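Fold this sequence, please.
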Amino acid sequence: MPPWRKRFRSHLKALLDITRIDDIPRTVVLWAGPSRLDGEPIMVVASCVRVPSENWKTEDMIQVAIMSQNHAPMDAWRLGLDGSVCPTSCIHRSRPRGGRGSCYVNKSRLRNTWNAAHTYLTEHGKDGRIEPDHLPSGYFAFAHMRFGMEGDPSAIPLCVWRYLAARVARWTGYTADWSNLSGGWSDLFMASVSSAPGMRRAKSTGWRPFFSSFNPKDDAAAIAAGLRHCLAESHGIGCSRCGGCDGNQKGHKRAGYYLPTHGNVGTFLRKQSTP
């Protein structure tokens, strides 16, 4: 268990005046309201609050998902109803919406999280907006948090992410809709890009890029532009320890990163595009 998780657990036990780890909720809804993308009801859901995450790439981080309130992630994906949480600027969006269907998130595994979020909403009030400050002050102190393990953070008001970023010890985050967002977003998020021109455009407009490359030519273009190979893959250093994908928080001149496209569909498409 990483040091931050130990401090976080002790902090929550004291903050909530509880004696057992099992009394800490597994899943917490941080915000609920209309999507910036299409106005449909969505929610921001934090999982792995009580128990560590087993994601090999991120290592142990609290996983924050942006989900539809009306459709579980896999259902939305299959039916092309993911537009409230995934912008049209994301080429990895569902195939029914014209995307490549190459999103690396295993959406079928999110059903339990989605169900738990609905239970949480029912207990805390399902109508209207739930602001992050419904939680005790300092709830996520010491936490390492992944903004957007499912869904694109751009669907949510920036003020929610600023609130969370100011209260956690470390975060990572990416948005595919960077070209349609104000400059304040680049303070917190990386520009998720999937082409060399997109990478160069993001850099020229003040964003630090994270380039999901589909072939060795794109890998070479990323290296030539000064991007670093994601440390999780190149050095076995997960996001929780690296902390490099936090936008311009520590300066816009820091190098961005690239990572060969992964996931079942992404890996297949990469093989198809490699000579």
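The mean pLDDT is 90. The chain is about 30% helix and 20% strand.
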